[in-house]
Amino acid sequence: MPTTGFIRGPNTWTVDQIRAAISRATQLNVIHEQRGARNYPHSFGNRKNTPLDSKCKQGDPNMMEFPIVASGPYNGGDPDADRVVYLHSPGDVDPVEGHPQSTYCGIMSHTGAPPIPRNGFGGCQAA
Fold first, then answer.
1. Angle at 4 between CA 44 and CA 124, to 5 degrees
2. Residues pairing with 87 in the sheet
3. CB atoms within 10 A of CB 73
4. Nearest residue to 23 via CA among 95, 82, 104
5. Which GO terms describe its molecular function (predicted)?
């Protein structure tokens, strides 16, 4: 998990908000459910090379994206512009507590991203 929050455009995301979004997304992965018209969480292939943590490789089938919204963990509706990216392998659990776990890759936003390529993302700056 990140040790600091992130800023992109008008939004600032705390470590707790990032953790909550990834936790909710991981729960949905485990129960094989998705939310919203765009079916989040879903695979993120990073075809446009958005900067992410080095452990998160382009094309990894376990790399997922999920909206991060100010009202709390996303549960459908408008996903807004910001996303968390994480790795989650089916069956991956914390060895001590036995809870499903995911690995943080990064946070990104459509806000302020270049208009080309279409639907591009930009990375977020540490707060």
1. 45
2. 63, 103
3. 19
4. 104
5. hydrolase activity; ribonuclease T1 activity; RNA binding
